[in-house]
Amino acid sequence: MLIHPNKSCLLIVDIQDKLVPAIHEKEELVNNARWLAEIAAKLNVPVLTSEQYPQGLGHTISEIAEVTPADTVMEKVHFSCMSEPSCNETINAIRPNQVVIVGMEAHVCVLQTAIQLKQQAREVYIVADCVSSRDPKDKALALERMRQCGIYIVSREMVAFEWMQKSGTDTFREISKNYLR
Description:
It contains eight helices and six strands; from the N terminus they run E-H-E-H-H-E-H-E-H-E-H-E-H-H. It is α/β, with parallel strands linked by helices.
């Protein structure tokens, strides 16, 4: 299945102040997630952001928050966004058939959210270069488990090119110039 910009949303899971310092390859995760969020915004793909217990773990880091809509931040205490009633309602309100997920931790909140979205009969795409965990072994196991569940594992460029669909447009030229070189 190809990812369509008018059928999908980008879900950014728990890239928060007090969690990021412990994450393996955190700079790559943050930079890649920001890159994809900026492209989503240029292509009018809805972007939602979750925050796990922000009173204790802080809010979404500034590098991500400054390029995502503040009014789509969802607080949660459940690990899965889909187990948190308000998050589930927000995601279902935009009715995405396809959900592209980035964030952390791959083996906890990302995994549980992805599996529950799949159980809701959605196409779920995990952006491998935009997810991480504290331990890289946990990320690897999470990606394998998600793959076994029928969840698609993709790269940020795969998502961007599928969202753009074709070259020769002003949007493609702008994204190519600013993000692909």
